[in-house]
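Worked problem 6 (solution included).
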Amino acid sequence: MSNFLYRFSAGFCMGIAEITPGISGATIAGIFNVYEPFVKVLSFFSPKFFFADFKNFSKNINLSLMIPLMLGMVLSIYASAYGVTYLIENQLIFFKIFLSFVMVFAVIKNCIIDQMVSDSSKYLISFILGALIALLVAFSLIQFDFNNIFLLIVAGFLAFTAFILPGISGALVLLLLGIYQEITCGIKSLDIIGLLPFIVGMLFAFFMIPSKIVERFKTNTHQIKVLFSGLILGSIPAVWIHLQAPENIC
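Solution. The predicted structure is:
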């Protein structure tokens, strides 16, 4: 398989993961061994690195990696929006069961397979904290009004942040916030104007997160994975409560 096709396939699978609640695109990138170079490229867009090494910017962005990866991802996100909508409208219970199993597996993978149980157990409080935060949102003890442009920007920021951190998907964040179906419909209809505040939030994260949070993630891998595992496990009720067939099919 050529490098272009391999990277295109990686991007395509990452796109499917990002539009599917419960599956992390960053995790898929790790499986294809493109996560580290992908995040490294994103980090060069931060103002700190962009202006400090502007002369080498074209070399740093690694077009041979990013072009096929992003092409596959964009096409996949658009196409997968229709597939996910079909499952929600026609196979909702099966889809919820599938997502729940995937989320449980993600917790097992993060806390047991990827690292020693003894390492994970050190951060039990982080796990409980993550689960409680997710449960608070899942049971609507925290309410959000996403008719507010500012909150749409925040949602975009959080979704992109989740996208580049293994363990929790951007789609799951949107599901937790109660706007997953709205964003999916916007993608299908290519409603750029309606998605603009969300895109602005993603751009903020794009310029800020890779060079900061990812570095922190690397230095606190065990604790961050355990925290995200708590978020994932506590998010399972959100799948059953908030993922519903839309009244108006988009």
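Discussion: The radius of gyration is 18 Å.
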